[in-house]
Amino acid sequence: MLRLGVNIDHVATLRQARMTMEPSPVDAAKICECAGADSIVAHLREDRRHIQDEDMRLIKRSIGIKFNMEMAATSEIVNIACSLKPYQSTLVPEKRREVTTEGGLDVIANKSSLEKSILSLKKSGISVSLFVEPLSKQIKIGKEIGADAIEIHTGKYANTKGKEQTTEFEKIIKAAKFAHALGLKVYAGHGLNYKNVKPFVSIPFIKELNIGHSIISRAVFIGLENAVKEMLNLIRS
User: Fold this and answer.
1) Using one digit for the tens of pLDDT, what is the confidence trace for 170-193?
2) CA dist 207 → 76, 118, 152, 200 (Å)
3) Sorting pLDDT into bands at 50, 70 and 90, what band is 95?
């Protein structure tokens, strides 16, 4: 059964727009759990533009499902993760001026630093996933430096249509199959929504989808519990 991780960053984005106490990412995490989500995802960015350190602590303490901490592989954030001990850390590239994560990690170019971060996280009992493009050469190095899983960046698929989207989807299938053969757990996410997610049900190697923006956007109109359940119905039917 395909699992769903719900990214709640943009609940915090709305809160930070007024620098107030609401809406609460912790309450959002609890609602997602009650609605059937398999994990909660939150990205503690270096610039703290949405999720804050205290959010991470409270979410970890308040939920009974897996907590996936998205993060840059910097010494500051790695130290926080090692103290917090989420179930999983997903290492992502991070740029200060970007609106959202723009692509996958260049595992090859950053092999040495990533390997050091992975070792520290795994010593703290944290499973490590790498957010990568659907490229076998990146996935291969990820396996070599000790990653437990990869999350395939689906942004290009989500932002295209027609034949180009089909081509991107085929790349994702190929990459997922390759990673699975290496013994890696395989996840996918970025830009997936209620209109483009259904094809992923047919990829047996992908075990989890991590989705945030579209679910939080849908929640504005139908409520967060209903938005999560609607997505679950799509990926499990």
Assistant:
1) 999 999 999 999 999 999 999 999
2) 30, 21, 11, 10
3) low
Q: What are phi and psi of 130, to 5 degrees?
A: -110, 130
Sign for the pseudo-dihedral over CA of 180, 184, 185, 186 = negative
The domain that contains 204 carries what CATH number? 3.20.20.70
Tokens in use for 95?
A: 């740029």
Contact 234, 198 (CB under 8 A): yes
> What does pTM read for this prediction?
0.95
| Burial of 71 per CB tally in 10 Å (0-12, 13-18, 19+) | buried
Which pLDDT does position 42 carry in this prediction? 98
Is 70 annotated as catalytic?
A: yes
Cα–Cα dist 12/23, whole Å:
7
Distance CA 129, CA 195 (A): 26
Q: What total number of domains does the chain contain?
A: 1
Which residue in the list 10, 33, 43, 94 is annotated as catalytic?
Answer: 43
Q: Is the peptide bond preceding residue 86 cis, with omega within 30 degrees of 0?
A: no
- Specify the DSSP class assigned to residue 191: S
Q: Which of 10, 33, 50, 70 is catalytic?
A: 70
- Residue 98 above 60 pLDDT? no
**Active-site residue, 213 included:** no
Residue 210 dihedral angles phi and psi, to the nearest 5°: -110, 115
For residue 168, name the pLDDT band (cuts at 50, 70, 90).
Answer: very high
For residue 15, the enclosing domain spans: 3-236
